[in-house]
Hints:
Chain A has helices spanning about 5-55, 60-65, 110-115, 150-165, 185, 195-200, 240, 245-290, 305-340, 360-365, and strands at about 75-80, 85-90, 120, 125, 130, 135-140, 145-150, 165-170, 175-180, 205-215, 215-225, 230-235, 345-350, 355. Chain A is an alpha+beta fold and about 375 residues long. Chain A has a 5-stranded antiparallel beta sheet with strand order 2-1-7-6-3. In chain A, strands 9-8-12-11-10 form a 5-stranded antiparallel beta sheet, sandwiched between helices.
Amino acid sequence: MVILPISSLGVFTYYTVKDHHKKEIEKYTSSFASLLASQIDLYNTRVIQTLKYILSDYQEIKSLNRDVLPGFPYLESLYILNREGIVEDTHPYNQEQIGVDFSKRIPLAQCLKEGGPVWSETFISTVTGNPTFPVAIASKDKVIVGFSNLSYFMSTFNLIKAIGVGELIITDAKGTAILHPDPSFVQERRNLGSLFPIEQGLKGREGFFKYTNEGKKMVGSVVRIPNASWVMLFQQPEEKAFALQKKMEKILITSLLIIIVITIIAGFFGATRLGYNLKMLLEKIKALKEGKIDDSLPTRALSKEIDEVLSHFSETAETIRLKEESLQAEKERFLALSENAPFGMMVTDQDGGIKYINPKFKNYLGMT
Amino acid sequence: MTYNIKKMQTLFFNKFLPMYPYLKRFWITVLLIPLIFLATPSIADEAIKIGFVGGLTGKLSDLGTEGRNGVILAIEEKNAMGGLLGKRIELLVRDDKQDPNEALRVDKELIDQGVIAIIGHMTSAMSIAAKPLIDSNKVLMISPTTSSPSLSGQRDFFFRVYETIEGGARHLSEYIIKKRGLRTLKGVYDLSNRTYTEDFYNYFKSHYQGMGGRMLAPETFVSTEKKKFSSIVKKIRRENPDGLFILASASDTAMICQQIFRLGWKVPLIFSGWNMTEDLIKLGGKSVEGALSIITYDPDNQNPLFLGFLKRFSERFGDKPGFPALCSYEAALVLFKAYEKAKGRVEKLPETIISIKSFEGLQGEIQIDEYGDAHRPKFIVTIQNGIFKVIQ
């Protein structure tokens, strides 16, 4: 009977805490993802600011220093194009690239129309052989294309990896991985568009999602990186995110099981003990009935109450025995007196029925 | 001591012994509970494994990445329709890094993982490296894009859905000489995929010269080695050929053409087909405009099967599919059909493909002969305003 309210209370507490905890996790994951996204956006903004600065006064900057890059740590390399998309200059200087048509590597038409910044889709660099995704800005007579220094992204990325709180994945506007814990995803230009949260992100939906990735249950928050139209996913295995909750669940289930098992065992042993003791009691009563008033039967009981009953019973039996003994003595004394009395004695009941006549009286009546 | 033994005996006989029948039931129940959990049949993951292997990284990765995407789409769609004979398909992707040793290593890895077949490799050099391994392990390999004739006419475990180069080389050389009137050509080719480039070059050369054309001594390079395309191009220009015949990957072709473009040299460009991927246009830009090639892919095909594929591929990957994606998708369809017809008996796959013979490709019929070599329509294409156009 006790088990029911205790269990209900446990389950109720568990669900209340679980719900609260779930919301906390969602909130924590989402705000962490937003924080990371703003960090990435900050790097992008710095790259754009640098590009705008260089573009605004390119000739001046170049006249001061042939190689402009060392002053701008957020940029790895830089291409200056004319409005047809033909490379006019590069930093670091690469003679083979001057005069090359770059128009299809960046969304040139969009860039010329909007002025930028416009990010290109991932493509394999003919120089390095690695996937790359530059950003372009246009002015009246030039287009500047910047390749970000990825070490800035990597610092955030590696921090997440080092803390081990989760994984950071970034894809371009088409779902191709540009940052992933497994570097081969980026190198092999894997498209993550089929991963549920990325799919949602590509459709412009942000938020907290629960999904399965390669058979593993995951939770993650999706945020779009402003300007770049990249999709950022901060994810972690569900069991890790809800580790505390799972632990609670385990404790609750274990304690409920323990309560149930203890109750069953207690009930079982209790019933057995009671049965055994009642058997003892019964045997005692039976013995008493048969007139065997002695202590030869085992009276050792295991329950306090039964023990008490047995001892009271034994005491009562003893009292009866003592009373019987004194009664017997009285009877013997009376018989000895009346049998040898020199006068006649008769005992009758209330209705006059004769109960006892002594030998002297029998003589009087001529009874032999 | 005697007392204790007696007490224990009393306890045992009077207390535990009468309890025994209940105890037995109790402990059996207690022991059974975890057993029930343990015995709950775990839903065994009986996925059918298919391998894909191609060059996925580096400058030659366009064939591999596009091909992989084609196979991914085919498998995702098949799984959505209930899988292969009711079983889910699992794709294992490996990168051969365009290195023969790596190709062997990853193929062995796939075979050890128990794949029913391997879709790949994407270049002839890798397929040739892999052939002894797949033959000795009796594992079917269907290559989407290998076209070297060195692998044809053999009864083996190597199959393909791409036609070998002989026919293509003949068609292309005829077109160049008859329709374009280009009499002197200079060849440039990559030795990192020598099996393909040299075979293609030699077939082309023999037909071309047979029709009265002249081939200048070819210029070669190795894609993986550092080189200056600007000096190669300057050297070629001095020979002043009527046209340039390039047999290289999209990335290298783009680099060569960009060098030609920046010199302002207007020379007709002819490509072997290996490079005709979306990357060529992305990297080559205006420099590859007007180039001619021959591929087994018609970008303007109106076959509903192809139009559906075009739409789904673009939605899934955000890019237009090129010939590697199309052929890889078709290679997967060939495998599915054969597996279903062979009722899942993997050892019967090669003979089943041969017995089916004719497969419905996305752009028309693909015939696979008794040696596992494919025959299908070919098209002469050009690049016009950044898109591939069929001209014959």
